[in-house]
C-alpha cells in the first residue's frame, strides 16, 4: 500500500493497465479463468488510457466472461459491475462490427440488473437490444427479463400482456376469449385426456427438444405461468395446459417440469382432482431433478408444495420443502420464485402452528432480502404476516389491527401495491386475528371484506379459509342469522370432509373442531364435548399446537356456557399452555385475564 501511494496519481491508471496486461499475457488460455476477475478489475482501472480500439474490445470480451461466470456463481452484484462497465466501453457502431459481443453484454447485464432490482437500468439496456437486435431470437433474453421485472414490481397484468404479444410474434396464439369457461375447460380436458392415454414413464424418457423456435415458445410460456397465477388466474389453466401439450406432442423441454407442476396445481383445485394432481406433481419433481431443469427447481417446489402436496402430505413437511425452494431460488437468481417460496413457507408456518418467535426471525430475514431485491409485492405480503405474528406475541396495542411503522398496513400497502392480492392477505389475517381474540363482529366484518377479494386460485389458504369463515359465521350469528350461519357451516363441513380422503393428518382435527362448533350451536351437549376432545387430541398428535389451543379455548367456552365453570377453567388453562407453546404470549395473557383469573 505504501508503494502504491508513492505512485503519482496521474500514472496510476497506466500501472493498473500494465498489471492487467501482464496477467493476461503470462497465463495459458486454459488458466485465464483463475485470474480473470483480477485481470478485468485492473484493466478497467486503466481503461481510460487505452488507445487501441481492438484492446477495448478484448477487454469487453473478458468482462463478458467474468460477468457470466459471476452470474453462474449467483454473484449478481459483481456481475453487474463487470457487465455495465463493459457496456460503457461500447460504441453505437459495435452493434454492426461486434454484434454478438454487444448483444451478449447487453442481455447479460439486463439479467443481472433484474436480479438486483435495478429496473430503470434494465429498461434502458432492453430498449437498446430491442432497437438493434436483428432477429426475434436475439431479443428473447431481454423479453424474459422485462416480463419478470414487471412481475417483481407487482405489474402482473402488464407482464401478461407483454408476454402474450411476444408469443404472438413467435407464432403461438391463443383464443381472444381466454376467460371463457368453455375455452378453459376445453384446454384442461384435452390435456387430461392426453395424459390419461400416456405411460407416465414415457415423459421421463423422452429426448430433449432441439428446435429453437419451439424452445423459445416454451421458455416464454414458463416465464408467464407465475404472472398469470398472480395477475390473471383464469389464464393459468390455459397456459399450463398448452405447455403440457407441447411436451407430450414434441418431447421434453427444460420447462417441462414447470408445465407438469402448474397443470397438477390446476387439477388439484378440488378433492376429486387431487389424486391426479398429486401424480402429476410427482412427475414434475422427477423432471426437475434432471440436469437441464436445475434452474427451475425453485418454481417447481413453490408450485408443487403450495398447490398440490399441501393437500396430501403433512403441512410441516411442505413448509420445510418451501424453505429449501427459497434457498434454491436465491442461488439460481430466480427472484420471483424465491419470494414465492418464502411467502408460502410463512403461510404454512402459521397454518401448521410453527413457533411464532422462529417465524418472526425467519420473516425478518425474508424482509431484508426482498427489500434488497426490490420485490415489492412479496415484501408487502411478508409484512402482513409479520404484523399478524406481532399481534399474537403482544407487540401491538390492539392485537386485532395490522399496523406497520405506526401506520395502518392496508393504507400503506394500497399506496404502493393497489392490488386485490394485497387486500386479500390483509383481510384474511385480520379476520383470523379478530376471531382468535374473540372480536366476533369485527371478524365477520373482515370476512365480508375478504370475500370481495378472494382470488380464483387460492390453494395455499383454501382449507383454512373454509374452516375460519364457518367458525366466524357461527360465532357472530344472532337470532336472525342463526339459521343462515348453520347452513353455511354445514356446507363448509361437507367441503372439509371432501379433503379428508387426501390427508387425515392436515384436516381431521379441523373437521372435528367444526363439527364440535355445529353441535354447540345446535345444543347437542354430549356430542359437543366428545368432538372438542377429539379435535384437541388429534391436533396435538399432528403437531397443530395453535388449533389445539383454539379447540381447548372453545371447549372451555362451551363448558362455561353449560354451567360447568370448574371444568371450563381446566380447558382454559390448557389452552393458555398451548398458546404459550405456540408463542402467542398476548393471546395467553388475555386468556389469563378474561377466563382464568376471574
Keywords:
two-stranded antiparallel sheet, 598 residues
Q: Would you give an account of this structure?
A:
The protein has 598 residues and is mostly helical. The protein contains 31 helices and two strands. The chain has helices at 2-6, 9-25, 32-45, 53-72, 76-89, 94-97, 99-116, 119-132, 140-152, 156-169, 181-196, 200-205, 212-231, 236-250, 256-267, 274-287, 297-307, 315-332, 335-351, 356-372, 376-393, 409-416, 420-436, 440-451, 462-476, 482-500, 504-522, 525-541, 545-561, 565-582, 585-596; strands at 403-404, 407-408. Strands 1-2 form a two-stranded antiparallel sheet. Strand 1 (403-404) and strand 2 (407-408) form a beta hairpin. The radius of gyration is 28 Å and the shape is elongated. It starts with a helix and ends with a helix.
Structure summary:
The protein is mostly helical.
Number of strands: 2
In the sheet with the most strands, the strands line up as 1-2
Radius of gyration: 28 Å
User: Roughly what percent helix?
Assistant: over 70%
Runs in which pLDDT lies below 50 for 5 or more consecutive residues are none
- Number of H- or I-type helical stretches: 31
Secondary structure class reads mainly alpha
Largest sheet: 2 strands, antiparallel
Distance between the termini: 74 Å
Mean pLDDT: 88
Approximate strand percentage: under 5%
Shape: elongated
Amino acid at each position: 500500500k505504501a508503494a502504491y501511494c508513492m505512485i503519482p496519481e496521474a500514472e496510476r491508471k497506466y500501472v493498473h493497465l500494465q498489471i492487467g496486461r501482464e496477467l493476461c499475457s503470462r497465463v495459458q488460455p486454459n488458466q485465464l479463468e483463475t485470474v480473470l476477475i483480477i485481470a478485468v478489475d485492473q484493466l478497467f482501472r486503466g481503461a481510460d488510457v487505452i488507445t487501441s480500439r481492438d484492446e477495448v474490445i478484448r477487454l469487453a470480451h473478458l468482462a463478458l466472461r467474468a460477468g457470466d461466470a459471476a452470474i453462474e456463481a449467483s454473484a449478481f452484484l459483481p456481475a453487474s459491475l463487470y457487465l455495465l462497465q463493459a457496456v460503457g466501453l461500447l460504441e453505437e457502431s459495435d452493434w454492426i462490427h461486434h454484434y454478438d459481443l454487444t448483444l451478449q453484454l447487453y442481455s447479460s447485464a439486463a439479467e443481472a440488473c433484474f436480479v438486483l432490482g435495478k429496473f430503470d437500468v434494465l429498461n434502458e439496456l432492453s430498449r437498446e437490444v430491442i432497437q438493434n437486435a436483428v432477429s426475434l431470437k436475439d431479443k428473447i433474453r431481454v423479453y424474459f427479463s422485462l416480463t419478470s421485472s414487471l412481475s417483481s414490481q407487482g405489474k402482473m397484468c402488464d407482464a401478461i400482456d407483454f408476454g402474450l404479444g411476444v408469443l404472438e410474434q413467435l407464432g403461438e396464439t391463443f383464443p381472444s376469449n381466454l376467460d371463457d369457461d368453455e375455452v378453459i375447460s376445453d384446454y384442461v380436458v384435452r390435456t387430461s385426456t392426453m395424459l390419461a392415454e400416456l405411460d407416465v414413464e414415457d415423459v421421463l424418457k423422452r429426448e430433449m427438444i432441439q428446435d429453437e423456435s419451439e424452445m423459445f415458445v416454451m421458455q416464454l410460456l414458463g416465464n408467464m405461468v407465475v404472472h398469470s397465477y398472480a395477475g390473471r388466474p383464469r389464464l393459468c389453466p390455459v397456459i399450463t395446459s398448452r405447455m403440457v401439450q407441447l411436451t407430450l406432442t414434441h418431447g421434453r423441454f427444460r420447462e417441462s417440469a414447470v408445465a407438469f407442476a402448474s397443470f397438477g396445481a390446476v387439477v388439484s383445485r378440488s378433492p376429486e382432482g387431487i389424486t391426479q394432481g398429486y401424480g402429476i406433481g410427482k412427475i414434475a419433481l422427477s423432471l426437475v431433478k434432471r440436469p437441464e431443469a436445475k434452474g427451475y427447481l425453485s418454481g417447481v417446489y413453490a408450485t408443487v408444495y403450495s398447490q398440490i402436496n399441501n393437500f396430501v402430505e403433512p403441512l410441516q413437511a411442505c413448509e420445510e420443502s418451501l424453505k429449501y425452494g427459497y434457498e434454491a431460488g436465491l442461488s439460481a437468481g430466480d427472484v420471483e420464485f424465491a419470494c414465492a417460496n418464502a411467502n408460502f413457507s410463512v403461510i404454512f408456518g402459521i397454518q401448521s402452528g410453527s413457533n411464532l418467535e422462529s417465524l418472526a426471525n425467519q420473516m425478518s430475514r425474508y424482509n431484508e432480502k426482498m427489500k434488497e431485491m426490490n420485490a415489492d409485492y412479496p415484501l408487502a405480503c411478508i409484512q402482513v404476516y409479520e404484523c399478524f405474528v406481532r399481534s399474537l406475541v403482544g407487540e401491538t396495542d390492539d392485537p386485532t389491527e395490522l399496523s406497520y411503522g405506526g401506520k395502518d398496513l392496508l393504507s400503506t400497502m394500497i399506496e404502493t401495491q393497489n392490488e386485490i392480492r394485497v387486500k386479500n392477505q390483509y383481510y384474511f389475517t385480520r379476520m383470523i386475528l379478530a376471531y382468535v381474540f374473540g372480536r366476533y363482529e369485527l371478524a365477520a366484518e373482515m370476512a365480508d371484506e375478504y370475500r370481495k377479494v378472494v382470488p380464483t386460485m387460492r390453494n395455499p389458504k383454501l382449507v383454512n379459509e373454509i374452516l375460519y369463515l364457518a367458525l366466524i359465521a357461527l360465532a357472530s350469528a344472532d337470532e336472525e342469522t342463526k339459521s343462515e350461519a348453520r347452513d353455511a357451516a354445514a356446507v363448509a363441513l361437507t367441503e372439509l370432509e371432501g379433503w379428508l380422503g387426501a390427508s387425515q393428518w392436515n384436516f381431521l382435527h379441523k373437521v372435528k373442531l367444526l363439527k364440535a362448533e355445529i353441535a354447540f350451536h345446535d345444543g347437542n351437549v354430549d356430542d359437543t364435548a366428545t368432538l372438542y376432545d377429539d379435535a384437541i387430541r388429534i391436533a396435538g398428535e399432528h403437531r397443530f399446537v395453535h388449533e389445539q389451543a383454539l379447540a381447548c379455548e372453545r371447549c372451555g367456552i362451551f363448558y362455561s356456557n353449560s354451567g360447568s365453570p370448574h371444568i371450563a377453567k381446566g380447558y382454559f388453562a390448557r389452552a393458555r399452555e398451548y398458546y404459550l407453546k405456540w408463542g402467542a404470549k398476548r393471546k395467553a395473557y388475555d386468556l389469563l385475564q378474561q377466563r382464568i383469573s376471574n
